[in-house]
Write a structure and sequence with these properties.
Blueprint (H helix, E strand, L loop, with lengths): L6 H13 L13 E7 L15 H16 L5 E5 L9 H10 L4 E8 L9 E6 L5 H11 L8 H4 L22 H18 L4 E7 L2 H4 L5 E8 L3 H8 L1 H22 L1 H9 L15 E10 L16 E6 L2 E9 L2 H13 L6 E6 L4 E2 L1 H10 L1
Parallel strand pairs: 1-2, 1-3, 3-6, 4-5
Antiparallel strand pairs: 4-6, 7-9, 7-10, 8-9, 10-11
Helix pairs in contact: 2-9, 6-9, 8-9, 9-11
The structure holds zinc ion (ZN).
Zinc ion binds next to loops.
EC number: 3.5.1.28
InterPro entries: MurNAc-LAA_cat (IPR002508), N-acetylmuramoyl_amidase_3 (IPR050695)
Pfam families: Amidase_3
Length: 371
């Protein structure tokens, strides 16, 4: 339903969000944007064990990396449902998020199926499954409640392995569905633009852990442990780092859009609408300027706090060092925030036309309006 290419739907949603400011909220009592990170499974519940990898361990490693990164942003607060290898009941996970008045709940998992060929990333929001595959994944993830002693009482007789239980699955998350889908789209977009993993898209299914939360919530399946190549990628430090970076950027894309006030004040001087910045500018490339120096430094990520890609160009007598590359102004803001979080506190967005010449942000943004 919410395919990443349903841009029109997202634009519509954005306009709704922008025009009804009461929908824009930060639930927490502090001014910080609170993200609850939920590593699936743990303790006696190993999750899926495709190719002898343990889902509980890989999910936790990715979650800890996401949290480590998010903590660098001053306006973000991170809460974990678990930081170690312990068993946490599903309802307890949601309770942690609800009690902390979180702005987002992000549950991270790895996929596993009997067949070894399926691969790719997919992000779920709560809803009624549209096909058998989505139902199967929800059944598998929900079946962990059987590790909980009184699960039949706690979940009102819900049988995670019976398709009948999913008929009339009550959707308490309805009011957060659009925002959840927005986040899910951003996460999938980051995955597909930064990695060669197959993009399986944004989907809906009846996940118990998502049903119990009172905030926008997603469940990310970061890839298939049962697929040999993907399992090895998920088990690697490089794979976990890339996946974590993409999730962090997806969360920041979402936060930047929800934080409409900041976005609008930034855009007011350019006379473009907020919805314009959601679109890609085909003739403009945005990059983030990290530093300018008379010294010629090798533009490798190692010299720039692991940020990648780094490019260098010369302007007058100075070498300018740039991070990232995107055709989307909003994504550029997220990249800039990442650079700031890494310590480049004066990082800013610069724009280049298709000939590679630097142009002003105003001119870049007006390119779209004039087209
Ligand atoms: Zn799982």
């Amino acid at each position: 339903m919410f395919r990443p290419n349903t841009r029109l739907r997202l634009l519509f949603l954005l306009i709704v969000l922008l025009s009804s400011s009461n929908l824009i909220y930060s639930q927490s009592s502090t001014n910080k944007f609170v993200v609850v990170l939920d590593a699936g499974h743990g303790g006696k519940d190993a999750g899926n064990t495709g190719n002898n990898y343990y889902e509980k361990d890989i999910a936790l490693k990715i979650v800890l990396k996401v949290g480590e990164q998010l903590k660098k942003y001053e306006d973000l607060e991170v809460i974990y449902t678990r930081k170690t290898d312990v068993f946490i009941p599903l309802d307890k996970r949601a309770e942690i998020a609800n009690k902390s008045n979180a702005d987002l709940f992000v549950s991270i998992h790895c996929n596993g199926v009997a067949n070894s060929s399926p691969s790719g990333t997919e992000t779920f929001v709560l809803g009624l499954h549209r096909n058998k595959d989505n139902l199967e994944i929800a059944m598998k993830e929900n079946s962990v409640i059987k590790f909980e002693e009184d699960y039949q009482i706690k979940y009102d007789g819900f049988d995670p392995e019976s398709p009948e239980s999913y008929i009339g699955f009550s959707i308490m998350q309805e009011e957060f569905l659009d925002q959840s889908a927005l986040l899910a789209n951003f996460v999938q977009k980051q995955f597909s633009s930064t990695m060669s993993l197959k993009d399986r898209g944004v989907k809906q299914a009846g996940f118990l852990v998502l049903r119990e939360t009172y905030m926008p919530s997603v469940l990310i399946e970061t890839g298939f442990l049962t697929n040999k190549a993907e399992g090895a990628f998920l088990n690697s430090l490089k794979g976990q780092t890339k996946l974590a970076d993409a999730i962090v950027d997806g969360i920041n894309d979402y936060k930047n859009i929800i934080n409409v006030k900041a976005l609008e004040s930034e855009l007011s001087e350019y006379r473009v609408s907020s919805s314009d910045v959601m679109e890609d500018f085909s003739t403009v490339t945005f990059k983030i300027q990290l530093a300018a120096s008379s010294r010629k430094i090798d533009p490798s990520p190692e010299n720039f706090k692991r940020l990648s890609p780094i490019t260098r160009y010369q302007e007058n007598d100075l070498y300018k060092y740039l991070f990232g590359e995107t055709n989307n102004y909003m994504s550029a803001q997220t990249l800039r925030d990442r650079a700031k979080a890494e310590g480049y506190t004066s990082a800013f967005v610069v724009a280049f036309n298709s000939a590679g010449d630097k142009i002003s942000i105003k001119k870049a943004l007006n390119t779209r309006v004039n087209n």
